Amino acid sequence: MVEKALFAIFMDGIFIKNFLLIQFLGLCSFVGVTKDVKSAAGMSGAVVFVMAMASTVSYLLYTYILVPTNMQFLDLISFIVVIAALVQLVEFVVRKNIPSLYRSLGIYLPLITTNCAVLGAVLLNENAGYNFAQSVVFGTSAGLGYTIVMLMMSAIRERSTFVNVPSSIRGLPQAFFIALMLSMAFVNYFWVIPI
Amino acid sequence: MSVSFSTLLIEAVAILGGLGLVVGVMLVVAAKKFKVDTNPLVDEIVEVLPGANCGACGYAGCADFAERVVNEGAPLNGCPVGGFEVAKEIGGILGQEVAEGESQYPFVRCNGGLNCVDRFEYVGFEDCKAVMLLSDGEKGCNYGCMGRGTCVRACPFDALSIGADRLPHVNQNLCTSCGLCIASCPNDILVFAKESEKVHVLCMSHDKGKAVKESCTVGCIGCKICEKNCPEEAITVTNFLAQIDQDKCTACGICVEKCPQNTISIR
């Protein structure tokens, strides 16, 4: 395995392997929480934190507990435990400190537990054989990529509520059209930065 | 394989169990540290509220109303659906006395219906707002009830129905005075009327007498006969429409007798 530069991994996480638009992970929150910028930003902040923490903890867990004891087959279940615990932690903190955000996120906050994006980041780390620094950088940048797309999507959706579209398209169908166009824009990174 | 199955099993259980234990302890500590103090009074009030979440109190649902009552001094009788009973229970929880207000119901201020001529035959979506889009409705009178039941569909409690006379009727036994029908009416036909307010002008038309007579047999033509005959001077005719000052009205019924159009009614 060729060692990848940290910066390359960083850009990978944000653009080339963007979780929402290239890998199609974590789409429920992408469609569900992007109705206004504020809750999208809050959700993204939570996801960045959870992804970075999950990458760190799961790397330590995998390298120092599962590999020495030859228990690699427990990776999936133990990662899920770690992620679930982290999400609970985030939920406590958000509920205590930002109650309004807690209310607007609603069901989607506990849903990060099952958010495939977080588990995806952790498993991609493992599959790529990243070392500690690389894992943390990839987890964080994946969260940042998620944030960028969430903010773009929510800003567009906020403004497009004033656009006069046929009533049959208004709402979710409109969101899917926006997602389609954003996705096309992001796919172009494959050509701009060849991998 | 060098390790036996049972050792593998024991190790796996030990690792997962240990992980679970560590995570559990961490979460317990976090839950203690970030505990949010919820007021038990709020939960109690949510219990006694009707739970319709209709929003008629002006807050975002019953839970929000309960929180505002406890924390921000929202009125105890703020829930129009629950009425006095619920207000009393909320008062009991908070240890405050609640005075009973007079109940009020939506009242239909139009007697047009079949008495009102149609200008054309409407075929289309059965909704007052849809009818209004077609040159202000099919009715000859632009102020009256369209009778297409927008208010009936707005009512979450089935208290309204369109009668044979093509006018909405309020079933006071089912009505909770939430006001959603009043908000839904595109022509402002529905208004709140108190139980004690007996005499009402069943017309909204500001048209001149001739125009009203052409379109409706029971509309107010602004002739001022009621104004002249009222012993309490409770009626004033402004802009070709009689209005009753409910504070002065004694429900003597003279205006009802004298009105040539039978626009005023006593209930």
UniProtKB/TrEMBL annotation, chain A:
Membrane topology: Multi-pass membrane protein
Key word Transit peptide present: no
Chain ranges passing through the membrane: 6-33, 45-67, 73-93, 105-124, 136-155, 175-193
Pfam families: Rnf-Nqr (PF02508)
Any one of the GO BP annotations: electron transport chain
Compartments (UniProt record): Cell membrane; Endomembrane system
InterPro entries associated with the record: Ion_transpt_RnfA/RsxA (IPR011293), Ion_transpt_RnfA_Methano (IPR049674), NqrDE/RnfAE (IPR003667), NqrDE/RnfAE_oxidrdctase (IPR050133)
E.C. number(s) listed in UniProt: 7.-.-.-
Keywords: Cell membrane, Electron transport, Membrane, Translocase, Transmembrane, Transmembrane helix, Transport
Domain of life: Archaea
Entry similarity comment: Belongs to the NqrDE/RnfAE family.
Subunit structure, interactors included: The Rnf complex is probably composed of eight subunits, including RnfA, RnfB, RnfC, RnfD, RnfE and RnfG.
Name of the molecule in the record: Ion-translocating oxidoreductase complex subunit A
Annotated organism of origin: Methanolobus mangrovi
Lineage, opening ranks: Archaea, Methanobacteriati, Methanobacteriota, Stenosarchaea group, Methanomicrobia
Originating gene: rnfA
From TrEMBL, chain B:
Residues binding [4Fe-4S] cluster 2, per UniProt: 141, 145, 151, 185
Binding annotation for [4Fe-4S] cluster 3: 155, 175, 178, 181
Record's keyword annotation contains Transmembrane helix: yes
Region span, Hydrophobic: 1-31
BP term (GO), one: electron transport chain
GO terms of molecular function: 4 iron, 4 sulfur cluster binding; electron transfer activity; metal ion binding; oxidoreductase activity
Predominant place of localization: membrane
Subunit relationships: The Rnf complex is probably composed of eight subunits, including RnfA, RnfB, RnfC, RnfD, RnfE and RnfG.
Protein name, as recorded: Ion-translocating oxidoreductase complex subunit B
Organism listed in the record: Methanolobus mangrovi
